[in-house]
Design goal:
421 residues; alpha/beta; 2 domains; eight-stranded mixed β-sheet; 17 strands
C-alpha cells in the first residue's frame, strides 16, 4: 500500500531510504516526497548524530532530555496496521517534587480524512466517518487514554467555505447523534472526549455555532464552548455558516485535569490563548482545519508559543486529506473557481510549557497521537519563568479599555526633527 512507503523507508539506512523515496512510484498525495512528515524525512536522511542535534533544536528538551517514546499495547498497534492509521506515543516529564505527587494524564488527538465522496448521501457520509473514528478511539481506549480530542467538525466534510446552505444538514444539537455516540465510548473507556461539531441551537432560533462539547468520563455532558473567532481569509470565510461564540473562555475541570478548547482560527489570537490560561487551563486543545498553502509555516509555531507563554500543554489537531465538492466555488481573492480547499496537512502534535514538543503525525494519513504528561510541569514553569507575576496586566488592561473608545489616540511620540521639515 502506498501509505506504508514512508514507514518502511524509516527502517532503512539513510542513503537507501533517501534514494528509494525518490524512485518509488508509490508516493502518497500530501506526503513530503514519500515521507510522512518533516521529522521523518530528517530522521531518515541525516546521520544519527546530526539528526540528534537537529531534533534538539526543532523539538526542544523536556527536563533536559529528548522527548521519550512510549510503547503501546499490541492491540492498539494492530488496529493501526489493519486500518491504516498513523499511531505514535510520547511522554512529557516534570521534575520530582517534595510535596506533590506526579499528576500524570494520558491524552490523545485524532486526525482523520472523510471516508465517502462529498456527493454520497449525507447520512452515509456521517455514518462512515463515525465508524472510522470509533476504531481510533478503540485504539486509544486500549492504550489507556484518559482525555481525547477530535478534529474541528469531525463528523462532516469541511464544507463551510462553499457557502452552500445544504451542508447545514450536518448540524445537530449539542446532545445529538454524535454526542450520544461518543458518550457510549466515554463510558466504555472511562475517557473524557472533546467533541467538536456544527451545533444547531434549538433553544435560540436554530442558530448555528462551531462548538466543542465536553463529554465526561461517565458519559455525562460537562459543558460546551463555541468558537470565538471566525476567519475571513481566502476560502475560509465561515461567517455565512455560524456566529462568533458566546461562551467566553471556559475551562472544564475534569477528573483528569483542567482543560479548555481553542477552536481553529482562535490560535491566531494571542489574547484568546491568554484568557484560557487566566481561567486556569492545564491543557488546551486546538481542533482545526487548515491547508498547507495558507498556514503550514505558522502551524508548528503558534500553539507551541502559546504553551510557553501561558504555562500549559497544547494539543493541536488538523484534519487530513483533500475534500472535493460537487460544485466549484470562488473565494473572492482573485483565484479561479475551484472544487477543493487544498490539502489538509494533518501534522497534529503536542506542545509543553517548557518549549518541548512531540514530532507530528502524518501529513497524509489518519492518525492517533498519544502523550503522557505530568501536569505538575505547568506550575513548575510558572515558578521558573514568572510570566504571571511579571505580566503587568494592569497596563494592558488600561490600554485595551482605552483602545475600545472612539476617542482613542495611539501613544506615538513624534521625533521633533520631523516637525521642522
Amino acid at each position: 500500500m502506498a501509505s506504508f512507503v514512508s514507514s518502511n523507508l524509516a527502517e532503512k539506512g539513510n542513503g537507501e531510504a533517501a534514494s528509494e523515496s525518490v524512485l518509488s512510484p508509490l508516493v502518497p498525495d500530501g506526503s513530503i516526497h514519500g515521507f510522512e512528515s518533516l521529522h521523518q524525512l530528517l530522521e531518515t536522511s541525516l546521520k544519527p548524530e546530526l539528526f540528534q542535534e537537529v531534533s534538539r533544536l526543532l523539538l526542544g528538551f523536556n527536563c533536559g532530555k529528548a522527548i521519550e517514546r512510549v510503547l503501546l499495547p499490541e492491540i492498539a498497534t494492530s488496529l493501526s496496521i489493519k486500518h491504516d492509521f498513523d499511531i505514535r506515543a510520547f511522554c512529557f516529564h516534570a521534575d520530582k517534587e517534595a510535596l506533590r505527587q506526579p499528576r500524570i494524564v494520558r491524552v490523545g488527538l485524532i486526525q482523520n480524512k472523510i471516508v465517502l465522496p462529498t456527493t454520497a448521501p449525507f447520512s452515509d457520509q456521517k455514518k462512515a466517518i463515525m465508524q472510522k473514528v470509533k476504531l481510533m478511539i478503540d485504539a486509544a481506549g486500549a492504550s489507556g487514554v484518559n482525555i481525547i480530542c477530535l478534529q474541528e467538525a469531525w463528523m462532516m466534510p469541511f464544507a463551510f467555505c462553499t457557502r452552500e446552505k445544504r451542508w447545514c444538514e450536518f448540524s445537530e444539537p449539542f446532545d445529538g447523534e454524535c454526542t450520544q455516540f461518543l458518550q457510549g465510548l466515554a463510558r466504555e473507556y472511562n475517557m473524557v472526549i472533546v467533541n467538536p461539531i456544527l451545533e444547531r441551537d434549538l433553544k435560540h432560533g436554530e442558530v448555528l455555532w462551531n462548538t466543542a462539547v465536553i463529554i465526561g468520563n461517565h458519559g455525562n455532558i460537562i459543558g460546551l464552548h463555541r468558537k470565538n473567532h471566525i476567519p475571513r481569509v481566502g476560502d475560509f470565510n465561515e461567517s455565512t455558516y455560524y456566529m462568533e461564540g458566546n461562551t467566553g473562555h471556559p475551562v472544564f475541570e475534569t477528573c483528569y485535569g483542567k482543560i479548555a478548547v481553542n477552536i481553529c482560527y482562535g490560535r491566531h489570537h494571542p489574547l484568546n490563548w491568554l484568557a484560557f490560561g487566566l481561567n486556569g487551563a492545564e491543557i488546551v486543545f486546538n481542533p482545526s482545519a487548515t491547508v498547507g498553502e495558507l498556514s503550514e509555516p505558522m502551524w508548528p509555531i503558534e500553539a507551541r508559543n502559546a504553551a510557553i507563554a501561558n504555562s500549559y500543554f497544547v494539543g493541536s489537531i488538523n484534519r487530513v486529506g483533500t475534500e472535493t465538492f460537487p460544485n466549484p466555488f470562488t473565494s473572492g481573492d482573485g483565484k479561479p473557481q475551484h472544487s477543493d480547499f487544498g490539502h489538509f496537512y494533518g501534522s497534529s502534535y503536542f506542545s509543553a510549557p517548557d518549549a518541548s514538543c512531540t514530532p507530528s503525525l502524518s501529513r497524509h494519513r489518519d492518525g492517533l497521537l498519544i502523550s503522557d504528561m505530568d501536569l505538575n510541569l505547568c506550575r513548575q514553569l510558572k515558578d521558573k519563568w514568572g510570566f504571571r507575576m511579571t505580566a503587568r496586566y494592569e497596563i494592558y488592561g488600561d490600554l485595551l479599555s482605552s483602545y475600545l473608545k472612539p476617542s482613542f489616540i495611539p501613544q506615538v511620540i513624534l521625533d521633533p526633527s520631523l516637525q521642522k521639515r
